[in-house]
Amino acid sequence: MSGVKIVTIGGGSSYTPELVEGFIKRYEELPVRELWLVDIEEGKEKLDIVSSLARRMVEKAGVPIEIHTTLDRREALPGADFVTTQIRVGLLDARIKDERIPLSHGCMGQETNGAGGMFKGLRTVPVILDIDKDIEELCPDAWLINFANPSGMVTEAVLRYGRKNKKVVGLCNVPIGMEMAVAKDFGIDHSKVRIDFAGLNHMVFGLNVYVEGKNVTKTVVDRMAKGLFNGSPKNIQDVEWVSEFVKGLGIIPCGYHRYYFLGKEMLEKELAEFSKGETRAEVVKRLEKDLFELYKDPNLDIKPPQLEKRGGAYYSDAACRLISSIYNDRGDIQPVNTMNNGAITGIPADSAVEISCVITKDGPKPITVGELPVAVNGIVQQIKSFERTTIEAALTGDYNTALVAMTINPLVPSQTIGKVLLDELLEAHKKYLPNFKEYFESR
Amino acid sequence: MSGVKIVTIGGGSSYTPELVEGFIKRYEELPVRELWLVDIEEGKEKLDIVSSLARRMVEKAGVPIEIHTTLDRREALPGADFVTTQIRVGLLDARIKDERIPLSHGCMGQETNGAGGMFKGLRTVPVILDIDKDIEELCPDAWLINFANPSGMVTEAVLRYGRKNKKVVGLCNVPIGMEMAVAKDFGIDHSKVRIDFAGLNHMVFGLNVYVEGKNVTKTVVDRMAKGLFNGSPKNIQDVEWVSEFVKGLGIIPCGYHRYYFLGKEMLEKELAEFSKGETRAEVVKRLEKDLFELYKDPNLDIKPPQLEKRGGAYYSDAACRLISSIYNDRGDIQPVNTMNNGAITGIPADSAVEISCVITKDGPKPITVGELPVAVNGIVQQIKSFERTTIEAALTGDYNTALVAMTINPLVPSQTIGKVLLDELLEAHKKYLPNFKEYFESR
Amino acid sequence: MSGVKIVTIGGGSSYTPELVEGFIKRYEELPVRELWLVDIEEGKEKLDIVSSLARRMVEKAGVPIEIHTTLDRREALPGADFVTTQIRVGLLDARIKDERIPLSHGCMGQETNGAGGMFKGLRTVPVILDIDKDIEELCPDAWLINFANPSGMVTEAVLRYGRKNKKVVGLCNVPIGMEMAVAKDFGIDHSKVRIDFAGLNHMVFGLNVYVEGKNVTKTVVDRMAKGLFNGSPKNIQDVEWVSEFVKGLGIIPCGYHRYYFLGKEMLEKELAEFSKGETRAEVVKRLEKDLFELYKDPNLDIKPPQLEKRGGAYYSDAACRLISSIYNDRGDIQPVNTMNNGAITGIPADSAVEISCVITKDGPKPITVGELPVAVNGIVQQIKSFERTTIEAALTGDYNTALVAMTINPLVPSQTIGKVLLDELLEAHKKYLPNFKEYFESR
Amino acid sequence: MSGVKIVTIGGGSSYTPELVEGFIKRYEELPVRELWLVDIEEGKEKLDIVSSLARRMVEKAGVPIEIHTTLDRREALPGADFVTTQIRVGLLDARIKDERIPLSHGCMGQETNGAGGMFKGLRTVPVILDIDKDIEELCPDAWLINFANPSGMVTEAVLRYGRKNKKVVGLCNVPIGMEMAVAKDFGIDHSKVRIDFAGLNHMVFGLNVYVEGKNVTKTVVDRMAKGLFNGSPKNIQDVEWVSEFVKGLGIIPCGYHRYYFLGKEMLEKELAEFSKGETRAEVVKRLEKDLFELYKDPNLDIKPPQLEKRGGAYYSDAACRLISSIYNDRGDIQPVNTMNNGAITGIPADSAVEISCVITKDGPKPITVGELPVAVNGIVQQIKSFERTTIEAALTGDYNTALVAMTINPLVPSQTIGKVLLDELLEAHKKYLPNFKEYFESR
């Protein structure tokens, strides 16, 4: 049977209409035959709402994409060409805890790389590995395209502990957002911008920026130093870079780097939100509620513009262009999370990096970077150590390893505070941490 | 002429009697013919006091070591076999500023790896490179044995920008102190302890501990976790490790790791000292004053026991056993700062690392480590990035690079604070930062 | 002034009409304003013939490309965007010696990687480095595109000892020829074939072959094993591969691999040619003579079809598409010789490799390969050792180093024979080996 | 129970008296309690002869070493501290075939790295891996000390496919022989010589030679270049090095390098022996016969001096000093085959290399070498590719892989000849190649 079969795990997500819109727009080049939206029991209501909207969108567009839903991923997987994962283990309530518990102790939560992000990793990694195991059994040649955060950590885990064929790619909207921002700043089309990306997920740098083939890195750095350019996603606090720092760096940091290089200011902003009950997770929860109200409207048959505020802008573009380039063996260049394989000197060959790749039918092939600029190699390696130690804790359920992971996180100021955070977060997420069973029983 | 010629730059240091004692004790195996103590004009008085003591010590011991002094190192260098550097550019007053200025902004000073250490590096690196240039001209085959802090950074700088023959070794008393502490804890002689060291200066880990050939790493870790063992130098605040962290790490951290893993507590202790005018630098300044009073006593002809309190315990042992092993091609194992050359995977081959080496007439040859434990690789790389960026700032005098170095230091919580510290410290040390001339003039 | 300025050193070569045809065909995308053909005094007659033909070709095509000639490259270089080198130091007579002298001792000559190739390297490397020095002075931002064999060795030499900006690319028609052969075998257009190349010049492997995005490597291997497919250039003896070897290898060898894996048979064929006075060099000399007779015809205003027999098929395509992709920042994938930079694990980062690259305005960026297949890593490293040792001999003129280079060449069966070849070849090429002056004088 | 238990597999070997003598001499430092000599049914007679001699030697020496024999290694292994392997699968008759079959086709046999060595590997690797499996079950903490050739290939195989704890060391008498030769040449004791070894088994180089701590490499190179020094084992043909080659190399080749650098002459010598029925294997077979006659003499109670001629001089010294240094955690330096772990840049971290190591209770730790000299890196990598491909063939029994291994061997001049050798040798050794069952059945 011709056409592509896609399975989206966490299909009830508010992002799904973006994805559906992406598939509709690209139907000519990427003929999706079946889109399976999979969710868990707790997500059934949302799944119903989203899948109905998806069906209306497809119908309105007049493309023959079949929308299926199921609560059993094993029903969906057989024959899949691509499996996308956009799950949130513990839903937004878990994220609220990830953010509020650290903040209650004066510490950054940060749902991807901070103490909160560590717990997102502890909850998510084992689930994704289970999905990967099902893929191995039911559709072993399918590409696993992961959006679930922390996306770099998840990719690392699947590369190390998942299928032998390593058919996994981690995606993020940060790099594409940086490209879009440059395009906007130069008043040109996105297709005329190319950035050499290298680093890790939420820890990626633009080493060179090309506009219509001209290397404009220095211009972009200068505009950034003057506060005229800002490539950050909307969900990140807008704290000003110090001009001389940006010039000294000479490459383009991503929005998340503020957490590491402007830690004090970021923390202050987050503490202010915390005290008002307006942490990002809380805001998102309200936004989502509104979105689903919108989605329910039986007259809505396009992606509603309000979705943009949700923060995941360009996810759909990133995902659809990746899937399309793999499907079409396009050989174009895209930034994704994939196995390093020597592309960045000094990072283990078998670790995941976020890097510009040539995308072929055989997946992404990183473009060689060589050594990272000296000034940023350290923090990149630091986060990689944190990611790998967290994965080890996630799989072993070992408390001591978890404390080490927490302590080496650059946003945690001491192991004593780390221990407090660890204990509270473990307790708060107990239900989603089956690998820590022995620890919970031994207390 | 037979016998060894040693030139000690910064010879007026209060540590010199330790060194002299070391040479006396080892005279049989290491026949020092001439010891040249070199200092600068400002250090003349101390140089006179110390050299007189040294002469009395030598005479009392009855060994034919000639003690020479000079204020012109170029007079001393010709024919030298070993040149040791124990300089302190700007003397203790500069160190006091290194410590107090950051603390005045609520930030760790830390005279080796913190903001203060960065400035120690900015002041020291160009001077050592000048010394190395003189060595190249006057005694090109001499070994440069550096004690001046930050010793790892200095070694890195000489390896990258100094003599082609790379005859430089950086020394520190931290590793030997850890061996001594294990020996004491097990109630055995130092010679029966061997530790596999790897990392960077003041960022070194004991990967394995052997006592009489038995791998006792787990025992030492457990004792450390229980607070029964502590390998730290006396000059580091005694904050307790969290038991589970130490067990999770599974290797032996050095005392300085507290600054990174117990940052909050260390900062609190230092702030308390700061408010009492008792930062380490201030305490040391008083200790030194007392020591020099003692040294003046014409009846004193041995190293006075009070020197132990000064903090640099074992420096003499570390230095003399290194020099002796090179001289005698002993082939024994010692931890030093030297070129990595692939010994630690992931760190550039041409960077300095602190590592257990076989010591031969051709200098130290690192024992292969392979990959560092995942959990600590990140922080080691982070410090290496900081060291290299600081060296670049030291040699170029570039303000922006200096701000980047300051910001990526893990003890500096934000680039905004980093900028404040940078500006004040630059001003405070203006006199000792000739490479920043253009910056000072342009303000 | 708009348009591209190209300087072709060795412009009197019989290949030049190919290049001119290439520029004419691509004029829309690559507007060449000036093409400077440079040659030496001995090549003046050929230069006149070729440049006249070039002018007729340009006129017939109706494109405004100015053709200039000069015997002084320093006149041509200022303002150049691209400098192409297609020189043959010592002309074809030198190549005849490169091939006949080894064969006279029962040894493979092989004008690129054998004993003959070594001497081609010894003669060519210093000249190209001189050209690079002139470029540095007169048009430092120009790209040096080298066709002169041994192209990999020349690229290695310029990367290590040439301009700091490393703007050099080495080109060869072997990889493009392999792509063309696959296209022909599958009956499709060249644009639908992509091969992942990795290795060294004349030592390159096709790791994966894609036809319309499908990985057909196994099919190509099987057809090769059955003798149905052969990607070799015409100038290489057609000795049959052993079926099981090709299948065991599992990747696509290039034509030159026969010299290493089918050495005995290749040698027999060459010895037969030698005895008939029909070594490749002698044949080429006759072909060239005929070609220049053709070129003289004032009615000829296109590239004559007889040029195809000359052996350098596709050189023009390879060169023009590379120059065009750099000029247009195309971001397409092409196999070239460039700095490894970690793309192939185990080969020094600063060495030249032949590898599929993304071609941008900043030059080629290798696509990461990781480890070469185990079975071929050894021979690739062997040739790299030979290349680097030959370069060292070329630059130092050291006889002993030259003998080591000769001995480690896999086509030389013993150092005793190596010495005989070395002595005779040195004598034969004395005139072109000024760096060996001391050696010649000391005999 | 105190004392060391050693199990020697292949205990009926004529070398065993050397080993026994070594244990007797070192009884004070290495108190061997039990020595188990294990052999197979076909070796029973020799085992009886050798074990009786061993008992007489022990008794005469008056040391309480118990000598046990068994034909079942699983009886011997429990409780072993060290297991040494000195097996010869197929006995000397197999080696005769390894040498004569290639020579009958005009090709070097070479029982370790040539076509013959490849078959020795094919026969031996699976057997050693079986032994390693038994060790894992019965005495998992024992060190496997392998003498069986090709020792580097065997070590590589056990490191990659054997016990997780990687407690294997490969031994060879070549490096110790080179040290002994230097000692003799300088007229000093062996203990005063140290050589920095790096490379592979039978492909090892002395990078630096120290005599009493002085680097005398240049002197040794010069003496070698003049034919005054020769570090080869007696069993290697004495073909003269070309003086300029040795000087150009600048490091000390081992005896086996003649096969690669003086291939033509070595082959001529071997062909001459072949025609007289005096290949090394045939000579050794006769020597062994004589030795066993001697061993039978009930009055013999020491190692007979005639054993020296056998060729394995210093094996006992190499083995006993290694075992003693591990047992005593001596921390001295010895050349052994062990995991590279980054010590030699460019060779995979998980491959076996022959290298100077610090020997501790935890086994050998290589001293970092960095990059091998450029000229020799290639041939070392070539042999490593051959070793790894041979191991793959040995474990899979794949004919095509075996043909690739045969072809990439530098001593095999073409894949067509390689195929002839492969087919004949497979047939000749059919009985000892159970993994090739499928191939044999399919013919």
In short:
With 443 residues, the first copy, chain A, is of the alpha/beta class.
Overview of the molecule:
Chains A, B, C, D: Homotetramer. Chains A, B, C, D: Keywords: Carbohydrate metabolism, Cobalt, Glycosidase, Hydrolase, Iron, Manganese, Metal-binding, NAD, Nickel. The structure is a homotetramer of 443-residue chains. Chain A has 443 residues and is α/β, with parallel strands linked by helices. Among the domains of chain A are: 216 residues, Rossmann fold (3-Layer(aba) Sandwich), CATH 3.40.50; 69 residues, no CATH class. In chain A, the strands form 2 sheets. In chain A, strands 7, 8, 9, 10, 11, 12 and 13 form a 7-stranded antiparallel sheet that branches. The first copy, chain A, has a 6-stranded parallel sheet with strand order 3-2-1-4-5-6, with helices on both faces. In chain A, helix 6 crosses helix 14. The first copy, chain A, is globular and about 55 Å long. The mean pLDDT of chain A is 94. The interface between A and B is large, with 49 and 49 residues.
